[in-house]
Design a protein that fits this description.
heterodimer, A: 4-stranded antiparallel sheet, globular, B: MetI-like fold, 2 domains, binds adenosine-5'-triphosphate, binds magnesium ion
Amino acid sequence: MSEIVIDKVSKIFGDGGAKPFVAIDGVDLRVEDREFISVVGPSGCGKTTLMRMVAGLETVSRGEIRVAGKPVTGPGPDRAVVFQQFALFPWKTVRENIVFGMRSRGASREERDEAVTYYLRLMKMEGTADKYPHQLSGGMQQRVAIARSYATDPGVLLMDEPFGALDAQTRTIMQEELVRVSKGNPRTVMFITHSVEEAVYLADRVVVMGRNPGHIREVIDVASTRQAERWSEEPIDDVMEKPSFTHLRGQVWRLLREQMGADV
Amino acid sequence: MMPTVAGAVPAKRNAWRPRVRRSVVTGVATIVALLVAWWLSTSVLGLVGPARFPSPEAFVAALQRIWTQGYAGGTLIEHVVQSVRLVFVGFLTAVAVGVPLGFLMGYDRRIEAFVNPVFLVLRPIPPLAWIPLAIVWFSLGDASKVFVIFVSAFVPSVINTYTGVRNVRKHLIEAALVHGASRGRVIREVYLPDASPMIFTGLRLSLQASWTTLVAAELVGAFLGLGRALQTAYRDVNTPMILVAMVAIAISGALTTILLARLEKRVIRWRAEA
Ligand SMILES: Nc1ncnc2c1ncn2[C@@H]1O[C@H](COP(=O)(O)OP(=O)(O)OP(=O)(O)O)[C@@H](O)[C@H]1O
Ligand SMILES: [Mg+2]
C-alpha cells in the first residue's frame, strides 16, 4: 500500500535567511494507493517543489509527508522520478539504463534481461538495447526513462512534465503508451503537466494549484466519469472529443485561467 | 565496380573515408615539402650556414653516431628509455595522488576548504622553480627529476579532476538517488563517468607538463636522458646533434600523448562523436 499523505506542508526557501521565500503554503493532499493524480497550475506555483519534496530531493519546511505510512526523509527507490529532461545516464546503454534501479534492489540477471525485453517490446523499441541515449530520439529517450522508473518497481511514480520536451505527435503516442503501461502495472502516480488535456486524459483526479504562495485551489474527480464513459477503451483522439471529456477540460481550464488572472 | 560518375548514393555512404585519406595525404605532402625545402636551403643552395642549421646529411650522420656509438653517456635508445621512464614514474605518481585528491576536493566541501589554502600558496610557483631545491634535496639522480615532474604534473591533475567533479550534473545524481543507488554506486556510476572527460583533460596537461619539466631538469643536470644529450650537444656546439635530440624529444612526447588518447577513447566510448 503506497499512499502519499501530504500533511499541512509548507516550503520556505531561504528559511531563517534575510529573504525567505514561501513557495508552498499549507498543502494538504492524500493520494490513494494506485491512484493517478495530475497536477496543473500556473508557472512558479510550486508543482516541481511539491513533487521534489515527495521524492525526498527537497526538505519540508513545515508539516510532514508520509509515503506508505513512513515519513519521507530522503530519496529512495520506492519513489522513482521521471524528469522532464529525461536524465538518462549518457555512458550507459539503453539496457543498462533500464536496469539501473533494478540493480539497487539486487534483481537477478534473468530478471533484468526479462524486464529489458518486456519494456522494449511494450515501448516498441526492440533492437535498441545496446544503443547509447545520444543515438535515440527525444521520444525514445523519454520512453527509456519511463521504463527505468517502472522497472525499479516503486510504490510511487513521480513525473515532472515528462512529455514537455516532446513534439505534439510523439506526445500523443506517449500518453497512450503511458495509459497502457500503467494499466498493466498500476502505481501511485503524481504527474505534473502544463497540458490540461493531458491532465484530464491520464488522471483519476486533477489537482489545480494556485500561486503566491503555492497552494491547492481545487481537486477535480475524473475517475468516475472515465469509468462511466469507458474512456480507456477508445483512442485518445476520440476520447478528447467526447462531451464528458470537454466538460471536465473546461472546468479545469476555468480554474486555471482564474489562477493565472489572479496576478496579471 | 563503382561508377566513377556522380553516383551520389555510394559516394555519400563512404563520405568520411576519402576525407580521412585526403587529410593523411595532405599531411604527408606537407612534411615531404618541408624536408625538400630544408634540403634545398641547406645542402643545395646554402642559404643557411651549417653552424646555424644542419643539412639533412649532417643530421643523418649525427643520428647514426648517437644510435651506434652513443653520445653524452649513452646511445639514443638509452637516453629515450631513461627519459620516458622518468616521465612515467613522475606522471603516474602525480596522477595517483592528484586525481583522488581532486576528486575528494570536488566531492566534499570540507576537504576542499582544508586543502585549498595549501594550493593557493603552492600554485603560483612555476614548477621549474622547484628544480634547484630538488637538486639540493635529491642531488642529480633520478629522484630529483621524479620529484619536479611530480610537482608540475600534480597541479593540472588535481585542478581538472576537482573542476570535473564539481560540475557533475546534479540531475544525474538525483536520477541515481531516486532509483536507489548507494553512495558507492553514485560515485562509481555517476561522478566518475561524468567527470572523466575533465579528468582526462587534466591527465593530458599533466603529461605535457611532465615532459617540459623533465627536459628542463635534465638540462640543469643529469647523467643520462634526452635533456642531457641536448645539453651536451649545446656545449659541443653540435647543431646536428641538438636537432637529433629535439626530434627525439618530440617523438617520445607525441607517442606518450597518443597512448593516453587511446586510453581516453577506450574509457569514454559512450560519447557522441562530434
Ligand atoms: N532552490 C530554490 N531556491 C529558491 N527559490 C526556489 C527554488 N526552487 C524553486 N524556487 C521558487 O519556488 C517557486 C516554485 O517553483 P517550482 O519550480 O516548484 O514551480 P513550478 O510550479 O514547477 O513552475 P513551472 O511550471 O514553471 O515548472 C518559484 O517561484 C521558484 O522561483
Ligand atoms: Mg516545474
